[in-house]
Design brief:
356 residues, alpha+beta, FAD/NAD(P)-binding domain, 2 domains, FAD/NAD-bd_sf, flavoprotein
Length: 356
């Protein structure tokens, strides 16, 4: 249990709760849920520019990272087709991968196919079910993809000023504006209560909020004096109590709750808002192909990690379809922008390619 780990090392409840957010981030789980301690470990593994466990902003936004990877690939002869949706994987006579078919009917032939789509999309939508073992299909269908995350992107006309650390008179950013700011995290019990509400189909009345202001470090993201604020919030169920769906009224009601909470910490925040974009779990699934809205392509619970990711017997990036490899967040070691699953899958694919 995460709570036991934090109690062993720390005394301050606000510190323990702040650390606990990284143990439940993206997970429909409470700090009291068994196995939650691993998710905290997952968020601090690796390093950034020599600093262990560090995270950072990407200059130009996350799309700049994809652009950099694309440039590196094309410099080495890769061809990238953007906005070309894949309809299904092309199979040979023996059931092996032989390329992909695009929605416009174009066939792209290849000896190997690597998919960084989720396991559900890869194996339940892009492959004919009769080509896969029934028990494999059943396991993929049973993956826990519940997500508590609602992402809210906000445009503001001035920097938030927090009661705990008011802005300087000149309005220039202070050190805390360059960090991840955790709100409604004074105690782990608050996080547990927020989870319990969502488990019963109700958006948290006092949601956990991670607030970042990337434009402080990357001014090009907003006009002078203005900023973009990224709100990573939970808990919100995919389906509301009574089977209700997330309509505009429900979206705005939850966002208003989030903004009311921020207002308590930073009076004047709501008046500074000039635009907002609300992405509930169903929105994240529809727009980004995240199953259940899950940013990790599936829960990071102990039964879906290591040798069981995505399913037992297929944790080594290969799949029941010869020549088809899983290289996204649904593969070991899971989600997060670290590239480990892709690198590992590439190593396996290169090894197999040499024998073709």
């Amino acid at each position: 249990l995460l709570g036991q780990i934090l109690d062993h090392w720390f005394e301050s409840e606000p510190l323990k709760a702040t650390l606990a957010t990284d143990a439940v981030i993206g997970a429909m789980a409470s700090p009291h849920t068994p196995g939650s301690g691993y998710v905290l470990l997952h968020h601090v593994m690796g390093e950034l520019e020599g600093r262990r466990g560090a995270w950072g902003y990407v200059a130009g936004g996350m799309g700049a990272l994809s652009h950099a990877i694309a440039q590196a690939a094309t410099a080495r002869g890769a061809h990238i087709f953007a906005e070309k949706a894949v309809c299904h994987v092309l199979l040979g006579r023996a059931g092996e991968a032989r390329g992909v078919v695009l929605q416009d009917g174009t066939e792209v032939r290849s000896k190997l196919v690597l998919s960084n789509a989720s396991p559900q999309i890869t194996f339940l939508e892009l492959i004919p079910q009769e080509q896969l073992p029934k028990d494999f299909v059943q396991r993929i269908q049973q993956l826990d993809t519940r997500s508590p995350v609602t992402k809210i992107n906000v445009a503001v006309d001035r920097l938030p000023s927090f009661l705990a650390a008011p802005n300087a008179r000149d309005g220039q950013p202070r050190p805390h504006h360059q960090c991840s700011i955790h709100l409604n995290c004074e105690g782990t019990q608050l996080l547990h209560q927020a989870f319990t509400e969502a488990a019963h189909g109700h958006p948290s009345s006092r949601p956990m909020i991670e607030l970042c202001i990337p434009s402080v470090l990357d001014p090009g993201l907003a006009p002078p004096g203005c900023h973009v604020v990224s709100l990573f919030t939970q808990y919100t169920p995919s389906v509301l109590a009574g089977g209700r769906c997330w309509d505009e009224q429900a979206r705005n009601a939850y966002a208003d709750t989030v903004f009311d909470c921020i207002e308590d910490y930073a009076p004047g925040f709501k008046a500074s808002v000039i635009g907002r974009d609300i992405l509930t779990p169903p929105d994240l699934e529809r727009i980004f192909g995240l199953p259940g809205g899950n940013i990790f392509h599936g829960g990071m619970s102990l039964d879906q990690l290591y040798f069981a990711r995505p399913v037992p017997s297929y944790s080594g990036y290969r799949s029941p379809i010869p020549g088809l490899y899983l290289c996204g967040s649904g593969a070991h070691p899971g989600g997060g922008v670290m590239g480990a699953a892709g690198r590992n899958a590439a190593q396996v694919a290169i090894k197999d390619f040499r024998h073709l």
